[in-house]
């Protein structure tokens, strides 16, 4: 196979050297060059025609966000952002994903040990490969404008006495897929819980961004918090989010336990908790994401009668998690992202939760 050609854009000579060495250890990847700033990158993109870019956010002469916005308008291509884990870095990284970056990875620190660098290397290589595979499916458009939000006057009404809950899991590409889905849902929804693979310093910012583009109330989940209709609860980046029964109601239970499927929060942990919430009716959704987290845990929910939905391959940035759910026969339905809001509303207002036509 032809190796994936990568161009590294970073103003730090040390970072360029380290990233080059780490990527070059994988024979499926070829570092074709490095660039010290966006102007240098612009020239080398034309010359070297890379498949994937790694892009630093903070650079001289032009910041990474401005460069990314120009790149997506003039020469769209897969980009993996190198970001810091600060709150400021979280805001900029989420903005980059809105503009069209495929993924991001936190920069390691110079004092990190060998094990941390090894984990960083594995994650970076996986993200580069996933980004390359998404090249033909990326639909770049103006994503930094406010999305049209759903209106309360949709005619949708769910029966609260049916005790319904919606659970959504996602990873790579998920921040934008979740935003697209929630922005088209009305305020009078059953409660929604979300596990998105995201660092601890990003999850609260992510929840706030979602809250601004949907009539639903979106917040980062807190331990023992009641799960209410019209609300969306996002798993904190360093805790597993589960739903547990408390009398006739559900509450959030956060778990500070080991990673599951290399993730914390894990979709598998969230889905598994929902097997114990009968008579609540569960709708489980797996959106775009790398790996298989949640795909096997969705099967018992489907077998118990829950509606289980996987995002289709065409609209998934990375068809890892939803694709695995299809392979394991965990997903009863495979639906494109644009059609998902309509299908979800139909299912929640329909006693049978029958298949879409």
UniProtKB/TrEMBL annotation:
One of its GO terms (biological process) is chemotaxis. The keyword Electron transport does not apply. CDD domains: CheB_Rec (cd16432), REC_CheB-like (cd17541). Residues 5-122 form the Response regulatory domain. Residues 159-351 form the CheB-type methylesterase domain. It is found in: Cytoplasm. Pfam families: CheB_methylest (PF01339), Response_reg (PF00072). InterPro entries: CheB-like, CheB_C, CheY-like_superfamily, Sig_transdc_resp-reg_Me-estase, Sig_transdc_resp-reg_receiver. GO terms for cellular component: cytoplasm. Keywords: Chemotaxis, Cytoplasm, Hydrolase, Phosphoprotein. Belongs to the CheB family. NCBIfam families: PRK00742.1, PRK12555.1. This is Protein-glutamate methylesterase/protein-glutamine glutaminase. It comes from Amphritea balenae.
């Amino acid at each position: 196979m032809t190796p994936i050609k990568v161009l590294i854009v970073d103003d730090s000579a040390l970072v360029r050297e380290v990233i080059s060495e780490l990527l070059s250890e994988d024979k499926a990847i070829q570092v074709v060059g490095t660039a010290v700033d966006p102007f240098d990158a612009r020239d080398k993109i034309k010359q070297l025609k890379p498949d994937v870019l790694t892009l630093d956010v903070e650079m001289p002469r032009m910041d990474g966000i401005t460069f990314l916005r120009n790149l997506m308008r003039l020469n769209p291509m897969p980009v993996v952002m190198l970001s810091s884990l600060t709150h400021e870095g979280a805001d900029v990284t989420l903005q980059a994903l809105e503009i069209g970056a495929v993924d991001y990875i936190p920069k390691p620190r110079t004092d990190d040990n060998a094990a941390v660098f090894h984990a960083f290397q594995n994650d970076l290589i996986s993200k580069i490969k996933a980004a390359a595979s998404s090249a033909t499916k990326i639909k770049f458009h103006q994503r930094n404008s406010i999305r049209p939000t759903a209106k309360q006057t949709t005619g949708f009404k769910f029966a609260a006495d049916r005790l319904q809950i919606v659970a959504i899991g996602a990873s790579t590409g998920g921040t934008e897929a979740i935003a697209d889905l929630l922005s088209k849902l009305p305020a009078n929804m059953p409660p929604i819980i979300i596990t998105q693979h995201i660092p601890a310093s990003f999850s609260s910012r992510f929840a706030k961004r979602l809250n601004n583009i949907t009539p639903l109330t979106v917040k980062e989940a807190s331990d023992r918090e009641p799960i209410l209709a019209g609300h969306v609860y996002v798993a904190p980046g360093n805790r597993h989010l589960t739903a547990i029964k408390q009398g006739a109601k559900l509450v959030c239970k956060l778990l500070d336990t080991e990673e599951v499927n290399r993730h914390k929060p894990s979709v598998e942990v969230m889905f598994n908790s929902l097997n114990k919430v009968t008579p609540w009716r569960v709708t489980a959704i797996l959106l775009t994401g790398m790996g298989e987290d949640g795909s096997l845990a969705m099967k018992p929910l489907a077998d118990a009668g829950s509606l289980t939905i996987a995002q289709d391959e065409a609209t998934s940035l990375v068809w890892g998690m939803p694709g695995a759910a299809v392979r394991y026969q965990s997903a009863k339905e495979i639906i494109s992202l644009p059609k998902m809001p309509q299908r979800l509303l139909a299912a929640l207002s329909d006693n049978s939760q029958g298949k879409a036509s």
